[in-house]
Amino acid sequence: MYRGDLVTRRSYGEDVVFEILDINRQLAFLRGVEYRLFADSPMHDLNKVHDYRLTKDYMRSHSRVQQTHRLIQQYRREQQETNLQNMIVINEQDEEQELQSYFEVPGKVLHLDGDSRYLNKSLDLYNQLRVPVEGHYIQEKDMPDQLYDLLPKAKPDVLVITGHDSLIKNRRNRDEYSLDSYKNSRNFAKAVKIAREYEKNKDTLMIVAGACQSHFEALLQAGANFASSPQRILIHALDPVQIASKISYTSIKETVNMSDVISYTISGIKGMGGIESRGSYRIGLPNIKKSENNH
Known about the structure:
Layout: E1 6-9, E2 18-24, E3 27-32, E4 38-42, E5 46-48, H1 56-86, E6 88-90, E7 96-99, E8 103-105, E9 109-113, H2 116-128, E10 133-137, H3 143-154, E11 158-162, H4 185-198, E12 206-209, H5 216-222, E13 226-227, H6 239-248, H7 258-263, E14 273-274, E15 282-284, H8 288-293
Parallel strand pairs: 9-10, 9-11, 11-12, 12-13
Antiparallel strand pairs: 1-2, 1-5, 2-3, 3-4, 6-7, 8-15, 13-14
Helix pairs in contact: 3-4
């Protein structure tokens, strides 16, 4: 086996597929393909993956992502039907006069990611869902300082702060409620606080923060609307994207349906949670481009 090969670990029931990042003697350093996870493993514990599409990891993740796509698309269709109904103009005789065309202004997402590969996968999904996004690969420790410059320039409606995190192994007296027990939760919490200093209103700037096993309570206390991980479990690489996309296309007149948005994630309620928040989607009149095409 070599760098770049896809593998599973026998001792963990081959539940997660990894890419080999490096090999030092007989120890392999791994990165999760679908989950935001770094690990290491003895070479003898690894099985090489010959067809990734046949693995349990791919089939579970791919099926769930596709299901989420269908749910979001269905929601968008229902939303567009509602918008059209609301655009009917009534004349003085209370008769339907014409159906105005409108334009959409979904919320803009600023996505900071501590892993360039996951950032690219996230940007692909945003584009598929037609969510306006600006993405930056920034190491977790540098995120708080970078936000001072990025927030005034990007002016996002939704901020995603994610990357890699974990409970630190083999630490004496490890306390799940102490930030000292986490690889990057402190960095994420600092970044959230910086963002909240920039915009205190939680309905003007929605923040989705955290990664695998992150300190959920600390991130919410810092000012996040949604965060990982209530049960300190691994989260799917695209879970923050699913939540941000739902916020982006939920009307500012409505609160984000909490059960819906959590059900859109692969990790579910054990991996992601949050507080009631408004959407950031707006519609406008008239649609100038369509009006011009009609003349």
